[in-house]
């Protein structure tokens, strides 16, 4: 069968890693007997500099007919980050009801990690981040002047929004180790977080076979570093999930290895896959970015299309190349280029 995929390389290293992910996905599609029809969109900070918008006004309609979206990264010095984020990423996530941000991490072979002594494969977690509401809201503003100046920022937690993300986490836990931990902070944040906790407890009661637990975000962050093997599925609000997923990526091998999916579970709209990392202006244009995160985002895309075997062959190819250790980008302690690592992974894709 044929799939229509929208490609948005974006800015900085987003462009470099996108090329490599496409290379690997093409190889997997060829071997597994399906066709990926790519359409490329130049939506980026460069476009913003030329036209004043990150994407055209009908951007959402243009993407609506695609099966999935693969996004590089957006954001670049010269354009404020809130412009790139609110001008592209957040509108797409919301328009397509991509209310789950799924961020799986695994300790991969050949990676630098603070978790000395642990072996690859031993550590596996997934952050289920709420992706449509919560702390990332436009409600609020700046008031007053001088010493009396202040800023207000409101969070929005709806029953529907919290129920569906928590339920998604429990369903996911059933397919994994059967453990869910919820990130909270109901001791300090006294309206939204107790509401979140209450709904978590209600849903937990529907899943007596899944071990559930609530943990304050600060303690959970410490646990993620000190006892990550005690964690499997983490469910968290938009802000808490954002922070915990970078931390989870850092403890399991770095930002260059962590993929993510903005998922519309009902598949009524396209889902959007991307690396957790951004456009890395500090190394952009040097050809040294690690393409693994974007390649694994591509594997998640294949999985979401229902091409499970192809997805598995991409992840396996990544592991093979990292374990051999001969081709590695500087963040992994090697001297290889982005393209060399991408090509090595593409060549390692096999039908198992
Ligand atoms: P970043 O993730 O781009 O970079 C953080 C650090 O990690 C940098 O030192 C970078 O060199 C390194 N790094 C990241 N990815 C790497 C890779 N694949 N290989 C090797 N090293 C890698 O985060 P930062 O610097 O906070 O943001 C840069 C820009 O990216 C900003 O404009 C930000 O808004 C945007 N951004 C966009 C995201 C998206 O499109 N979803 C997500 C995060 C940031
Ligand atoms: Mg982030």
Topology:
Elements: E1 2-10, H1 13-32, E2 35-40, H2 45-51, H3 59-64, E3 68-73, H4 81-95, E4 100-106, E5 124-130, E6 140-143, E7 150-153, H5 159-174, E8 179-184, H6 192-206, E9 211-216, H7 217-226, E10 233-236, H8 238-251, E11 259-263, E12 271-275, H9 292-305, H10 308-324, H11 338-348
Parallel strand pairs: 1-2, 1-3, 3-12, 5-10, 8-9, 8-10
Antiparallel strand pairs: 4-5, 4-11, 6-7, 11-12
Helix pairs in contact: 1-9, 1-10, 1-11, 5-6, 7-8, 9-10, 10-11
The structure holds 1,4-dihydronicotinamide adenine dinucleotide (NAI) and magnesium ion.
Tag the structure with descriptive keywords.
352 residues; alpha/beta; Isopropylmalate Dehydrogenase; Rossmann fold; two-stranded antiparallel ribbon; 11 helices; binds 1,4-dihydronicotinamide adenine dinucleotide; binds magnesium ion; IsoPropMal-DH-like_dom; EC 1.1.1.83; magnesium ion binding; ICDH/IPMDH
